Amino acid sequence: MLIAGFPAGAFQTNCYVVAPAAGEECVIVDPGQDATEGVDELLREHRLKPVAVLLTHGHLDHVWSVAPVCGARDVPAWIHPDDRHLLSDPAAGWSGTSASMFGGLTLSEPDDVRELSDGAVLQLAGLELVVDHTPGHTKGSVTFRLPVDEIMFAGDLLFAGSIGRSDLPGGDYATILRSLATKCLPLPDDTVVLPGHGPQTTIGRERATNPYLKEAAPHAGPTRGI
């Protein structure tokens, strides 16, 4: 398994490329602000051929470069339908002064956009990726899991020591706690979490130390044993 990434742009959003090995096909996860050059460097370094771009949600800092990255390689972008409108209307994902900052920014959908659904299994680039719908940060937030390797691309659902904010349009605190309870807490402790911002962590570490996962635990129900 090859996973390489870098923090893109002013938002320092983690962009990843994922492949079975160097020299093979790959997928690109969350190409954010000014990510095109970094993506190109990783593709050259590891001799990779992208077949798709996967988006954990529609916020600008995760989708900024999706159209040029998809267009340059003629590959589709995958996003949950509840966030698809943010690809062409980035200000809709923000509020107040933040929205006005992005109001003049023009983005467009890639030519080929495909929609994700909860529980879908994507067979891409020799990888099997399970899609989990995890609303709360946005309505269309998802995570991507490689269950065989126990790896989760968490987007802005779960960070090392924290979780994604829920005060932006489409966000809801009770909903993000339910997503954490139903999609994160049941995972094995060894599951590696690759978040949208900051360093990687594990489910076990977050279960033991993250106050938000402790708060989410009652929402998992009595059968979870947490």
From TrEMBL:
<protein>
    <submittedName>
        <fullName>MBL fold metallo-hydrolase</fullName>
    </submittedName>
</protein>
<dbReference type="Pfam" id="PF00753">
    <property type="entry name" value="Lactamase_B"/>
</dbReference>
<keyword id="KW-0479">Metal-binding</keyword>
<dbReference type="InterPro" id="IPR051453">
    <property type="entry name" value="MBL_Glyoxalase_II"/>
</dbReference>
<feature type="domain" description="Metallo-beta-lactamase">
    <location>
        <begin position="12"/>
        <end position="197"/>
    </location>
</feature>
<keyword id="KW-0862">Zinc</keyword>
<dbReference type="InterPro" id="IPR001279">
    <property type="entry name" value="Metallo-B-lactamas"/>
</dbReference>
<keyword id="KW-0378">Hydrolase</keyword>
<dbReference type="InterPro" id="IPR036866">
    <property type="entry name" value="RibonucZ/Hydroxyglut_hydro"/>
</dbReference>
